Amino acid sequence: MNETLQNRLAGVREQIAAACERCGRDPEEVTLVAVSKTFPFARIEEAYGAGQVDFGENYIQDCLAKMETARNLKLPLRWHFIGHLQSNKIKYYNAAFHLFHGLDSLKLARGLARKALAGNFKARVLVQVNIGDEATKAGIPAASLFDFLREIGYIEGLSIEGLMAIPPAGASAEASRPYFRSLYALFSEAKAQFLPLMPEFKQLSMGMSKDFTVAVEEGATIVRVGSLLFGERKQKVVLN
Predict the structure, then answer these.
(1) Within 13 Å of residue 13, how many CA atoms lie on the same side as its CB?
(2) Angle at 212 between CA 208 and CA 218, to 5 degrees
(3) Tens place of pLDDT for every residue, the chain, 240 residues?
(4) In terms of DSSP bridges, do strands 123-130 and 158-164 run parallel, antiparallel, or are they unpaired?
């Protein structure tokens, strides 16, 4: 086993536990998703050997290949799709995905629902919020979130399980805190309004390698950590 990866995983878990202690939370409330995109399956297998089961990918065909390898090795991994899902890639989405972190349009919601109904499963999704109102970033504007939730709440084939966001890049982890706090406020209000309609609306995915401890302090139930575990990744060129 790669001792460095094992130690890094242990270190991240310790930081999550310490953040939970600071704000009076149970570390069991927080899921660590190891962002394994662009890394070979061997690294995933090493992380699994250190107790990691949740992995995040953002290239769907790469993820399908890794899923197949995991099935062949009988590894009980949970796969989170954390990237933008293009309409022409919906055909690849299937019941093996544990959670999709990037629902950002009604068109995508309907496409995923049709695929799920055809495959006799429910697509478990988080709605992506453009919490910083950035023109270059995907997601539902905060001001439109509740209207969007009302639109998708009755779409058969979807399980709306919470919210996800990536705050604007800042110079420090603390720069993300006000955005995380705003997202948590939206999450809490949405849960109060929509929980009868969306009984699984319980997850808040926010925080990455740079700021995940701040995200935990502000209420994250899922953090997505990649470079802190696996190191810097090479940029991948995707041909459409």
Answers:
(1) 12
(2) 125
(3) 556 999 999 999 999 999 999 999 999 999 999 999 999 999 999 999 999 999 999 999 999 999 999 999 999 999 999 989 999 999 999 999 999 999 999 999 999 999 999 999 999 999 999 999 998 899 999 999 999 999 999 999 999 999 999 999 877 899 999 999 999 999 999 999 998 889 999 999 999 999 999 999 999 999 999 999 998 766 554 443
(4) parallel
Inside any domain, residue 238: no
Residue 206, token pair as written in the block: 């926010």
Report yes or no: 128 and 103 within 8 Å, Cβ to Cβ: yes
Domain extent at residue 37: 3-230
Cβ contact 203:221 at 8 Å: yes
DSSP bridge partners of 11:
none
> Into how many domains does the chain fold?
1
